[in-house]
Design goal:
By secondary structure, this protein is an alpha/beta fold. Helices cover 33% and strands 24% of the residues. The longest helix has 22 residues, at 20-41. The N and C termini lie far apart (87 Å). The chain binds manganese (II) ion.
């Protein structure tokens, strides 16, 4: 038997919105490329491990497009290989929730080749395989123990577990996210565990004892931080033998950093960003591809403000049809030490605002109360006050401002 394993197609993704149409095109094209690769390989089963769609609300043409491509996969496989194929799909966190599920768009009574798992009906059986498809759960460890494990024990033939969640020590699990362990998977009795949610391709790994785990990653570059190695796995169950079918990203999506430890002027940052950008444009020409770049400015300014680094000026220096978008990110750029002083613990706020005359004392007073409230009442999750907690300060500020008239003193 031969399988195709893929995940995280994110059809309909339009972020960054500035280049929404290009992004939608890229994700749709990745599905077309995946279908081509699967047809070429001639498989019996296709496992789509969640996040087929980017979101619950989609433009109708994207739904039609997805339906058409899946149907093409079935028809062309039949014509070329004489095999009737089954496509099995689980719901990822992007596909919606059980009551509002984007996968409803592709469910169809006549589409017998398609099996979309529900929250309760989590098994698929035929005379060759027993598949447990676990939709996305925040607490994947709990859902695995309560639902998937008992369902795996039953059934005959090759056992496959489909998940949309992280596997610790196999995927890099973000802190605080729930995950499954390799030991849990090994003990599950599954011959194959196919997972989505983690967007980076991971080499198939033999589990201790019995079975394999494989994460194909996403089919297109999802955001600037992602690496461009995209594709899907073809698995021959004899062996088993794993083959990687690459999908080349449609565009070059790049994140570049411009930094300076010693502190530099806005002009320096601008000049370095321009150099980076020109280098990127050269690369686009060498690859004959369109692309977009995010340039992150890091370090500390020696003078001026982050807004002195002009995104427009940087862009103007590299106008090029291959360059679809440039984003200059100054969030990590620190203010010069002279300006940044009030951020320090022991700064006298009234001294900093001394140009405001007597009002500086009031600023100090309110600042002190806000800091106190933040220390005592702020949410441990966000570090912020609630709207109600903030309101008293806003009212207080408005009263104080309204009681004053500010006039610039002419020298
Ligand atoms: Mn995803």
């Amino acid at each position: 038997m031969r399988f195709a394993v893929l995940a995280d197609l994110h059809i309909g993704r339009s972020i960054p919105l500035a280049i929404a149409e290009h992004r939608r095109e890229a994700f749709e094209r990745a599905l077309t490329k995946a279908v081509d690769a699967i047809v070429a390989a001639g498989v019996d089963y296709v496992f789509i491990c969640g996040d087929l769609f980017e979101r619950r609300t989609l433009r109708p043409h994207m739904v039609e497009f997805t339906q058409r491509e899946l149907f093409r996969l079935v028809k062309e496989t039949e014509a070329k290989h004489g095999r009737s194929i089954r496509i099995l799909v689980i719901r990822g966190n992007h596909d919606g929730r059980s009551q509002s599920d984007a996968l409803d768009y592709i469910r169809h009574p006549l589409a017998g080749y398609l099996h979309v798992f529900g929250d309760e009906d989590i098994t698929y059986d035929d005379d060759r395989i027993h598949v447990v498809g676990l939709n996305y759960y925040d607490q994947i460890d709990r859902a695995f123990e309560e639902k998937a494990k008992p369902a795996l024990v039953k059934g005959e033939g090759i056992k496959v577990l489909m998940l949309h969640g992280f596997v610790a020590n196999y995927n890099d699990v973000p802190p605080g996210d729930s995950s499954l362990s390799l030991d849990q998977l090994a003990a599950s009795g599954a011959d194959y565990v196919f997972t989505g949610h983690y967007h980076k391709k991971c080499e198939p790994r033999k589990l201790n004892g019995k079975g394999w785990v494989a994460t194909p990653g996403s089919t297109e570059v999802y955001d600037f931080a992602e690496e461009p190695e995209k594709g899907l796995y073809i698995v021959d169950t004899e062996g088993p033998k794993w083959t990687w079918a690459p999908i080349e990203p449609l565009h070059v999506m790049r994140q570049a950093k411009v930094g300076n430890d010693r502190g530099a002027s806005p002009k320096w940052y601008e000049a370095e960003a321009v150099k980076t950008l020109r280098g990127f444009v050269d690369e686009l020409h060498a690859q004959h591809k369109q692309g977009y770049i995010r340039i992150k400015l890091e370090g500390t300014l020696s003078e001026g403000w982050p807004s002195d680094v002009s995104e427009d000026r940087i862009r103007e220096t590299a106008q090029d049809p291959l360059l679809l978008w440039v984003d200059v990110d100054t969030l990590e750029l620190n203010l010069p030490p002279s300006v940044a002083r009030p951020m320090a613990e022991n700064t006298d706020v009234a001294e900093y605002f001394r140009d405001f005359g007597g009002f500086a004392e009031e600023i100090r007073e309110v600042h002190g109360r806000v800091r106190e409230a933040l220390e005592e009442e702020a949410s441990t999750k966000t570090g912020l006050l609630t709207a109600t907690q903030r309101e008293q300060f806003i009212v207080d500020w408005v009263h104080r401002f309204e009681a004053k008239t500010f006039k610039e003193v002419k020298p």
